[in-house]
Amino acid sequence: MAVLGSNNNKVSQDSITAGGHVAGRDMINNYTHIAAQNELKPDTKLRLLIEEHESEKLRDNDYKQFSEKLNDFLNRKVEGKLRNLEQKLSDGNRTHIIEYAMEVKESVTKKILLNSHYESAQKIYTYLLTNIRAAFLHQVASRIKSKDFQSYQIDDIVLERIIEPTLTSIDGCSLSIDADEIYGLLYILTGNCYIEWD
Q1: Which residue of 55, 57, 102, 149 sits 20 to 30 Å from the alpha carbon of 122, by its own alpha carbon?
Q2: What separation in angstroms does the CA of 174 have from each of 16, 73, 122, 180?
Q3: C-alpha 58: how far from its chain's center?
Q4: In this structure, are residues 158 and 186 in contact, taking their beta carbons and an 8 Å threshold?
Q5: Is residue 130 assigned to a domain?
Q6: DSSP assignment of 110-155, as one string?
Q7: How many domains does the chain have?
């Protein structure tokens, strides 16, 4: 039975050891956590598309249509003087990656077609191509056009602004999209005149 005026909140903390703080009652922590500026955050829309794909994959239905927008990315018809991927990369002082670019472009194109019976997979690849193009045009192209940046600096910007954020957002998708495939998407956009390196 409690007696008014007595101190029933006393706690004995003799001989206590702990790997951190020990408190008999309330403990106030005055630490402030500041998130790093460059912390990569997953793209929530892409996460929803991935969840849709995983769900559709479980249902295993045969989707017979091919997205018009995705088809445009893969098979764009361009009027006038055409340069192939090899020429575009060469004009952009990137002859050292021509063989790699052609290889990863062909590989990811085959994978897109292989998974095209999933509407959700088409949506994911369309979304990735759209975002890669937008990021390149708004964060890379002006630096290339300025001629103030070396090729290796442009490579670093592409890695930091396009490849790494995309890898972070696509993590866990059963399509198993890796860095080579993201570069492949970049070279699809290059080959079909959506982006330029010169």
Answers
A1: 102
A2: 49, 22, 14, 16
A3: 24
A4: yes
A5: yes
A6: HHHHHTTT-HHHHHHHHHHHHHHHHHHHHHTHHHHHHT-S-HHHHH
A7: 1
Domain that holds residue 128: 67-74+82-191
- The answer to whether residue 145 sits within a structural domain is yes
Token pair 């192939």 is found at 84
Whether 54 and 118 have beta carbons less than 8 Å apart is answered as no
DSSP characters over 97-112: GHHHHHHHHHHHHHHH
Mean pLDDT of the chain: 81
The C-alpha atoms of residue 36 and residue 106 are separated, in whole angstroms, by 37
Closest CA to 125 of 72, 63, 83, 161: 72
% of the chain at pLDDT higher than 70: 70
Please give the pLDDT value at position 46: 79
Full-model pTM = 0.68
Among the listed residues 98, 76, 96, 109, the one whose alpha carbon sits nearest the alpha carbon of residue 181: 109
Give domain status of residue 44, yes or no: no
